[in-house]
Amino acid sequence: MLDDVIFWTLGVLAVAAGGMVFRFDSMARATYALLLSLLCVGGLAILLGLDYLGVVIVLMMTIEMAIMAVFMVMFMMNPAGLMPMSMLHNKRGGAALCAGVFVLLVAGIVLAPWPERVGRAHGDPTAALGKSLMGPHMLTMMTLGFALFTTIVATVVLSTRRGRYDRLGDDLRARRADDPVRGGIGR
Fold this sequence. Notes:
With 187 residues, the protein is mostly helical. The protein has six helices and no strands. The protein has helices at residues 2-20, 27-47, 51-75, 91-111, 125-134, 138-158. Helix 1 packs antiparallel against helix 2 and helix 2 runs antiparallel to helix 3. The chain is extended.
């Protein structure tokens, strides 16, 4: 009973948060709505007994969305949603396409001749899934993940020579910025 309540709560929250991605005016808010949706999906995977896959989804999406939000705040014209913007292009066509794909997927799920289980389930579904997905390359993939994360962090750190204190110095309450680079708002 409790599993059913958690399943439906996470499912509805995942769909609602996914829908909010297209309702928010801010790319940063949309990123965190997408993160919430994907965390719920990871929770559903854990609830369904796929602990390894669920934890991988949660860890991967958390890091990915945090990095994405940082890049959006750095490079987007409207990261905080201060001016109205739309996340959609061709709203009617996109809505029709989404509705059509949804109907096809539901029809496929309902009408598919699902096979009956043959044999017994594996004793450890997490180990079976890990071997099925990665095979003997698990250590390689883990090392590659750390290397990619380190590369992304180093790229962000080294991408600019200026820091946050270059404009105002140590006194962030200064009235006039002493910015060596001209331009920006109000200049």
